[in-house]
Design a protein that fits this description.
The protein has about 325 residues and is α/β, with parallel strands linked by helices. It folds into two domains: about 180 residues, 3-Layer(aba) Sandwich (D-Maltodextrin-Binding Protein, domain 2), CATH 3.40.190.150; about 100 residues, D-Maltodextrin-Binding Protein, domain 2 (3-Layer(aba) Sandwich), CATH 3.40.190. It contains eleven helices and eleven strands. α6 links the parallel β6 and β7. α2 packs across α9.
Length: about 325
């Protein structure tokens, strides 16, 4: 029995040592993997690579970016959910993945039970693009026109139940207007119809270049701060709206059970990377801005916006 106990101790020792190594002060001691559940080139991919590559350098480790796109982020999320919780695999998330989609369809993961927040990374500016033919010169005039013409203003989105639709639904609720939603197969075709006058409004980052060029009107920017491309345009919140819902942000999650030391250290490195002026400049060039939140603040944001978007979806009776 003594011999068996001794041998059992030898077998167990490496596992204990491995666990201590993973959760100890020496984290990270190998490459960190970030699963991005969307294709390369999109805002979630761009912001993750810019900030997390710098964060990895600060931690003294390389970062592997693993794009696993499909099913509105569910494929990548399920992969991370089922990966070892050793502190070396993390997940990029969007607002939709943890605050919106669960209100609309079944998911192979539970955002609140299977994952824990690490940090928020960045946020996209959203332009309220308006066709020049709309007879309004500011937000108040636009709302007055919409109220006087219920059902005659169409707003386009990147598709049914996307965050770009929810922005329009939020505006309807808060402004007390009845714009009609027109879903498209992506943001680009919606923007083309906005430019030609087939629709009158679109809430989307794709409107920003056309706003800057003067091809579209814009009475408000959705986000916490003004867009540098047109700093004279106030945010929706500055004008008393945009208080429900939330922003189009990107963050990092960890599967539940990930060592807290790994979460804390990665979150701190993300915060430091976000303060790098060179990183900030590259983010702005891509239409985003650093909006770092630590684990506690990010978790509070997710919970608040999850409830807010759920309320919007219920009030607007949005279905997939």
């Amino acid at each position: 029995m003594l011999r068996r106990s001794f041998i059992g101790g030898l077998v167990a020792a490496p596992a204990v040592a491995s666990a201590q190594s993973t959760s100890g002060a020496d984290w990270p001691n190998k490459q960190i993997r970030i699963v991005i559940p969307y294709p390369p080139g999109g805002p979630s991919d761009i912001t993750t690579r810019l900030v997390l590559e710098r964060a990895g350098a600060l931690l003294g480790q390389s970062v592997l970016f693993d794009n696993r796109a499909g099913a509105s982020g569910a494929i990548g999320a399920e992969h991370v959910k089922n990966s070892p919780t050793d502190g070396y695999t993390f997940l990029t998330t969007t607002t939709a993945m943890v605050c919106i989609t669960q209100h609309l369809q079944p998911l192979p993961y539970d955002p609140g039970k299977d994952f824990v927040p690490v940090a928020r990374v960045a946020t996209s500016w959203i332009g309220m693009g308006i066709n020049p033919e709309v007879p309004a010169n500011n937000l108040q005039e636009f709302i007055a026109y919409a109220k006087a013409n219920p059902g005659k203003i169409n707003f386009g989105s990147a598709g049914l139940a996307t965050i770009t639709q929810l922005y329009g639904e939020m505006f309807n609720i808060e402004a007390g207007v009845k714009m009609v939603h027109v879903p498209y197969k992506g943001s680009a075709p919606a923007t083309q119809d906005l430019l030609s006058g087939q629709i009158q409004v679109q809430f989307d980052p794709t409107t920003l270049p056309h706003i800057a060029a003067g091809r579209l009107k814009c009475f408000a920017i959705l986000g916490e701060k003004r867009w540098p491309g047109k700093p004279d345009i106030p945010t929706l919140k500055e004008q008393g709206l945009g208080k429900i819902g939330g922003d189009a942000w990107y963050g990092i999650l960890a599967a539940k059970g990930t060592p807290q030391v790994a979460i804390d250290k990665l979150a701190k490195a993300i915060g430091e990377a976000s303060q790098d002026p060179a990183i900030g400049e590259k983010l702005v060039t891509s239409g985003n801005y650093a909006s770092y939140q630590d684990q506690a603040a990010f978790g509070a944001t997710v919970e608040r916006e999850r409830a807010s978007f759920g309320e919007i979806i219920k009030k607007a009776d949005i279905k997939v």
